[in-house]
Amino acid sequence: ELGWISKVYVNRPAVVRHAEQIKKWRTVKGNWQAAWLLKAVTCIDLTTLSGDDTPSNVQRLCFKAKHTIREDLLKALDMHDKGITAAAVCVYPARVSDAVNTLKAAGCNIPVASVAAGFPSGQTPLETKLTEIRLAVEYGAREIDIVISRSLVLTGQWEGLYEEIRLCRAACGEAHMKTILATGELGSLANVYKASMIAMMAG
């Protein structure tokens, strides 16, 4: 039941005030700062999404994902044996096999993520989006980053958005799915909130 979604209101001045306050919060210093930065590295997907990507580009990216921080720096922090790597390597579906094979050959368990569902525009028929997702998983992607159809948000088709995301989630099977909302194209903070809620409800 998505009838409530059309009644959502976002207090923009309050959001702007809170965002300004966040900028003034104290940052962590010293050893804590190093720990936070190391943790941040493990949350990053190293990504190449260029039209001129080749197997060798992807191989270099995989090497960088495994060796994200210089070994001498890790040794200085006594973190050289803690397995600090990037969270994932993210590529287009056509390059998934290259990344999977490279990481496997390196004896590395970093997951391969793939953008899909008509990335970046989302202007692709739903059937094509679902096929692209299934192929990326078949090629070895363990994470799928879908992009929503912004037109569904801008025209208030909330049930349609829910169904699209739900079908994409089903097409992922065992693979983890992340939903890219493209918030800069959604028109308002209320639409961002609505799209976020529907993405979560759809899995």
From TrEMBL:
Enzyme class at the top of the EC tree: lyase
Name of the protein this chain belongs to: deoxyribose-phosphate aldolase
Family under the similarity heading: Belongs to the DeoC/FbaB aldolase family. DeoC type 2 subfamily.
EC nos: 4.1.2.4
Domain of life: Eukaryota
GO biological process: carbohydrate catabolic process; deoxyribonucleotide catabolic process; deoxyribose phosphate catabolic process
Source organism: Acrocephalus arundinaceus (Great reed-warbler)
Molecular functions (GO terms): deoxyribose-phosphate aldolase activity
Keyword flag DNA damage: no
Catalytic activity: 2-deoxy-D-ribose 5-phosphate = D-glyceraldehyde 3-phosphate + acetaldehyde
